[in-house]
Design brief:
It contains eleven helices and no strands. By secondary structure, it is mainly alpha-helical. The structure holds fe (ii) ion (FE2) (2 copies).
């Protein structure tokens, strides 16, 4: 029984408790004033990135729902109910992220719509098709399979935590942080910085789940090709250098965990 008293679910619970912040408290007024004065090309690139996060964070908040129940039905080295609790804490973060990006859509980008759903619908036209496919088709399909018990936790965290958070979000956040480093949009910069810190523990948590869920060899063999596709999803709003750096980081993460041999970056 001692081996099941793994410390890492408690470790992530403590991180989640320490990292609480309020998406409503971030001041976006200076950003709203500065936005119209930014060059067109920069506004276009930032609109693509921020509208994509608006759609994607809402999707991950919703689609994380079945993961806790799936953890309880998986044989893990750690206490399954504690792992399920950490999924609940992660979902709380994702709801906060969705709220932040909706505020940015409403107050800075001034996307039309009286509700978050209407603003997301307005923002979809700026989102690259490959991002829509991942978050509006592939992720809901996988979450439905997970909820029905037709796929396992390792498939779930493999897509959600390793590919969507570990590559797509990581690359998009890096592109935003690089673009906003000059302080042109201070509230957006503060918010994205906080989101990126949250995502760091989510990815670490997903990696621990993946290790304990014991993914199949076929699943692991497919990961490099799926990671290459995920890193290309942003198109030209994320530079090839950033995409390569993020894909290499994902490879290092999985190989350091002993799950794969390091692969060549896409
Ligand atoms: Fe998030
Ligand atoms: Fe996350």
């Amino acid at each position: 029984m001692l081996a099941r008293r793994s410390f890492w679910p408690s470790f992530f619970s403590r991180i989640a408790a320490r990292r609480q912040w309020d998406a409503k408290a971030i001041d976006l007024a200076p950003d709203a004033r500065a936005w119209p004065g930014l060059p067109d090309a920069r506004r276009h690139r930032l609109t693509t990135l921020l509208a994509s996060f608006c759609v994607a964070e809402d999707a991950v908040a919703e689609q994380l729902a079945p993961f806790g129940a799936a953890a309880k039905q998986t044989s893990l080295a750690s206490e399954e109910s504690l792992v399920a609790w950490v999924f609940f804490l992660q979902r709380r973060d994702e709801v906060r992220h969705a709220l932040l990006f909706d505020r940015i859509a409403a107050e800075v980008l001034e996307l039309p719509g009286a509700t978050p759903a209407e603003r997301r619908a307005a923002g979809r036209v700026y989102v690259p098709p490959a991002i829509l496919e991942l978050f509006e088709v592939r992720l809901p399909e996988l979450a439905a399979e997970l909820a029905a018990g037709r796929t396992g936790l390792s498939e779930g965290v493999g897509l959600y935590h390793m590919l969507l958070e570990g590559i797509v979000f990581d690359a998009g956040q890096r592109a935003l942080l690089d673009d906003l480093a000059d302080g042109a949009l201070p509230g957006v910069l503060e918010g994205v910085t906080r989101v990126a810190l949250d995502e760091r523990w989510h990815i670490g948590f997903g990696l621990r789940c993946l290790i304990e869920a014991q993914p199949s060899a076929a699943f692991l063999d497919d990961l490099p090709a799926r990671a290459a596709d995920a890193s290309a999803a942003w198109g030209d709003v994320v530079s090839p250098a950033t995409r390569e750096r993020i894909a290499r980081r994902c490879s290092r993460r999985l190989s350091a965990a002993g799950l794969i041999e390091a692969w060549a970056a896409a």
